[in-house]
What does this fold into?
Amino acid sequence: MSRTHNDSRDSTQTSFASSTDGEDAPTVLRGVAMFHVGRSGSTVLGDLLHQNPAVHWDGEIYERIFQEVGRKVGPLFLASDAPPLAFEQQAWRTFLPSDPLRYLQERIEVTPKSVYGFEVKFFHLRFFGMSIVDYVAGLKLFGFDAFLLLKRRNFLRGVVSSLVAAQAKQYHFRNAEEVRCRPIVLDLERIEMDREEKSFFQFLEKYNAMFELLEELLEGERVLELVYEDDLLDDPRRGYRKVCEFLNLSDDPSEVRFVRSTPFPLREILVNFEEVARTLRGTPHAWMLDE
It folds into this structure.
């Protein structure tokens, strides 16, 4: 299912407009921020939106920076319990923009379309030393007036998809014939994902808490909540149409150009499926084994 709630403020209170020089130059009228935890259909949805003539979808703007810096100084990693001093001493720190909001503003200023959209994962902000509270406040000051929350109910499949992709060093596929089952061993107590290491239950608790906090911070704003299993899994265009309706855009025909990367049953992917099943049975998450 998807949920929408809108604010009741006068639209003139938002100031998301950045005119560029020239008679025919576009004016950015709307900013759209999508929050998600990855492996939840954001790439296929973002690609569909980018094909819309009114939208410039900029994707995961911070992840691209992390990858570029990683090629220079090695992979970025920050322990969950790292103290502030450890953050400042990281070799990669000097290669990152000092202010993620300023970097976002620079991206907006050169957008060629009337709608600018981008994606951010919760863990991205840790590498800038910025809280989600301050970040959302900054987006509101910029005049962002539309927010997308993309969730995935089956967190286990999301984790498996992430680990399979990391092992194969390929996160996205455009051709279904290229997709093949890549078995992995899943250690629920020690998962390296999102540039940190936690247990499955710690990751799940963390991201549930972050979404809850985000919903509180966006209370009264215009928000569309999408769920991967309901809105993207079978037909990504369903989610695309919902976003277009939410943004009052025409849902111009767009081509689905990405396919699922891990469509196989968990029994085929997980070498230690029975071990994982024993751990999850009797917990509120046991149902995730069967989808």
